[in-house]
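ok so dumb question maybe but i'm new to this and my supervisor (M.) told me to 'just get the structure for Outer membrane protein assembly factor BamA' and walked off. so i did the thing. is this what she meant?? sequence i used:
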Amino acid sequence: MRLIIVLFLTLITAFSGYSQATEKEKIIEKVEIIGNESVPKSTILYYISEKPGREFSPKAVSEDIKRLFKLGYFENISVDVKEGKRGLILRYFVKEKPIITDIVFKGNSSISSKKLKEELGLVTEEGEETKLKKPLDYKYLDTLKEKIQEIYLKKGFPGTEVYYTIDRISPTRAVVTFIINEGRKANVCEIEIKGNKKISSGDIKDVLLTKEKSILHLRFNAPLSRENLEEDVKRIEELYKERGYLDVEIGEPEVVSMGNSCYKVVYRILREGKPYRFGRIRFVGNKLFSSKDFLKLDKRIRPGKRYNQKEIEKLKRKIVRKYGEIGFIFANVSPEVSLNREKHTADVTFYIYEGERAYVRWINITGNVATRDRTIRRELDLYETGIFNTVRLERSIRRLFNTGYFENVDVKPKVVGGSNKVDVKVNVKERLTGVFSVGAGYSSVSKLVGMVSVSKGNLFGTGDSGSVNLQFGSRVLDFYINYNHRWWLDRPQTLSTSAYNNRYEYFTYTSKKTGVSALVSRRLWEDWKVGLGYLIERDKITDIDEDAPEIVKDEEGTETIGMSTFFVSRDLRDNKFLPHKGDYFKLTTQLAGNFLGGDKDFYKLVGEYAYYFNFNDLPVDWELPFIASVHAKVGYADAFGNTSKLPIDYRFYVGGDTSVRGFKWGEAGPKDRNGDPEGANRELIFNFELGYDVTRMLRLIGFIDVGGGWWDEYKLGDMRKSAGIGLRVLTPMGPIRLDLGWKLDRRSGESSSEWHFGMGSYF
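this is what came out, is it supposed to look like this??
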């Protein structure tokens, strides 16, 4: 209506000016735009058909006004005509709509303003708010209003009311405020299943997205909404099909109000039917693998077994992955089910399109500033012109993460159109790898100690690393230097060398150690690693008091340790510093003897295994940012030859931040008559953790540790136990861990708990 009135007045104005012109003055001399501020004059003139030199037409002016209104920039437009020297002058008077510069929300307590803006598309993919420069448009605002109500409806607020106000902060700028009356959230107080005989109501309720109000479901309780109810029907159907009931029919859910925002939902099973069994299983189109190869992937799919739709989908994914492992990433699998309703059997045919093997065309590396391209490329299990497959892709990401030089690694393949080529983009975000620290400390044992430390990873972008550490004081002198040369001799192997010289004056004795070591570790068989090393060390214990522990008195004098080390390991963790999934295995042997240049004969054997499970890998729709892990470690050591007892520094000391937390160092193992830890030659440790990822760099954990150390035997009934909580923080300097453990079997004279702090991986 407003547009019609404006056009009517405009035409009256135009014709009143035109009536004063003579027939000879119908030609337009000039077109003027008056009142525009934000919209450029050239933009307005572009949409005006009346131009200088053309014959004046009231009808054309009317069309121009309509066209300008459609742009959405103006709330009022008028035109007048006056005489000029050589014709008519058309003046377009425009009043621009204010520009919406911001949208704010009031009354929203259940959904944050940031979340609302994300849902409304007012936030970019990078998480930044869109800078609004939109002309005031009531249709647009009405659309946002409806979307807000839909958002609340999906969250279980059926009675949410929304209206908006417009505040003009200047003649050309406005802020829109959406006032939200959320109302009360709808709670499902009761769920009833009717018509089910073959599957229990409990099993059906377990698969529903909608849950009855319960303390146990506070976090994962889906809101009552039409969308979720429709999803529930699909889930019930899927459950029946997993059990072989392919003729199942589900009715529309019924929602009954029980008052006070409490609702009852009734799900009706109209028909269950009889269960089907697998009939003939066929694979068509496969040349690279046999039907037997595919059937080995899922033993539940066999003729005569109960039909299961979920297993069919699972086998489909496994077949695609099997092709992807050999480079056929374009493979496609389409299962087709044919029912025999008389025999209640289901024949399944898997139609397979194998496609072509994929090859890498280009590998493009971005984001690296300090790291050389070559350093990154050599860690990749992909190379240009080589085969591209999913296993190589996963292994490449894992290797780059585990170098410890990158905060984030993103490897994205892109298929080159019309070919079997793939371009691989490797984007890395480097972390801080150089640390210089100067400090001082004090303890009752060492007194005042000064500390200087310099460490650098990814030295000169080559992947090498090194460190120099010095501690000095009246009772302490500790110097340590090491260097790790990655890809030594241009092979996937690392040469690690170190040298140290230290002196510690304890209350009852003085210890001096000087030694050098070298270790060569090499990657074999893709994910396996082996290492061989040698250490030569001179130990001297002097100034022993009468009150010193017996194990110290037994070690008085000077001795030389010559020892070889061999290990084999496999690391399939996605990130060794803050793992989310995968496993880790390592077996280490150490052998010391006269034939290796030492005075002592002994050996050690240590095996450990860790497994990590990500709860998000469970087949549920909930977001579960939890990581469970279990770690086991077993140690066996003994002396032989002319050595009667295992040297003090090579015994197992159970208790502390890397074994059984909640106990002091060595407190969970054997002790001498004075109550001091004396170490052991047998150890067995189990660690159980449940972690919650607060952010990508911060994890909260709860743990239970069980372990013990013994001489010449394993006493499982004598294992010590503890539980506690902790933090894992991934910093630019490396992972930091902080744990607080409580003893579950506290003994007389022991503290109830212990704090533990450290840097680096735990296990």
